[in-house]
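chain below, 291 aa
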Amino acid sequence: MNSPVTHLEDYDTEQRFKAIVVESERITPEASDVEVRELTLELQQSDFELQLGQSVGVFSPGTKEFGQEHHFRLYSVADLPERGRSGLPRIKIAVRRVSYVDKYSGEEYPGVSSNYLCDLVVGDIVTMAGPYGLAFEVPEEIDANLILIGTGTGIAPFRAFVKHLYKNVPEWKGTVTLFHGARSGLELLYMNDERDDFAQYYDREAFQAFKALSPRPSWAAPIDWKGALAERGEKLWSLLGLPNTYVYVAGLEKMRGELDDAFGEIAGSEQKWARRKAELSAGGRWVELLY
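prediction:
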C-alpha cells in the first residue's frame, strides 16, 4: 500500500505506462451546466494491480510557453478493474470539465487536465502512472457499519467500493450509509437521471443513500452537510460510538472542516467530536481520501 503524500510533485512518476481510451461517456444530464465524463481506459500494462480507493495519475500536455512538459493530476478509479478482449486491464475514471477565473484579471481559463481528458475520443492514447493512495478496505468484521461520505467526483471510489462489497464479499452482513454531496441534484454522479448506479442497492435493507445539496446552487453556496447529517444525527452519533463503525471520506480537502463543523453540532461540542474522531482515526476507522 502506498503512503499518503501532500503535494503532486512528491509522487513517484518514473514508472509510466500507456492507456487507450475505450469509451468516453457524459454521466451528468445535458440539462446540467456541469459536464462530468466517465472514461474507460485500457491499460497497456498487464500486471497492473489496484486496491479499492486508490487513484491513478494522468499526464496531460503542458504549456510550452511556460516550459511545462506536462501537467500531472490524480483521478480516483470509479469501478472495479476488468479485462478487455485483449486480456489487458481496464479501469474507469470520472472527470469533471472545469475552468478557473483569474482573481486579478477576471479572465476565465479552461482547466488543462480536465479539458484534455474530456476532449479525448476512442482510440486516443494517454500516459499514466500509479496507482497511488490509501485503499478503502472492507472491515474484518462482516457485521461492520460503513459510513461513506463523498462529494463531487469523490463519489467515484465509493461506486467501486460498494460494487465490490455486494459482488465479491458474499459474507458481508453489515450496514452501508452513503452520503453524496453536490451543488445540485443534476450533479449527483451515479445518482441522477443519466446514470443511477446506486439504485441497484436500494432494495437492500442494510443500504441507505442520502443527498447533501447546496441550498442555493445558482449562487454557488456550500453543500449543506450540517443539514444532511443533522437529519440523521442521533442515528449517526449512535453508530460512531460502536467499535465496528468505519467512516470513509472522499472529495475536496475543504470537506474536512465542513464535516468537523457538522459532526461537532451532532456531538454537542467541538471538543467532544474531536475526541471521538481521534478515537476513530487511531483505530483506522476514519479514513480520508481528499484532494
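The first strand starts at residue 16 and ends at 26. Helices lie at 112-118, 156-168, 225-230, 233-240, 255-267, 270-282.
thats it, cya
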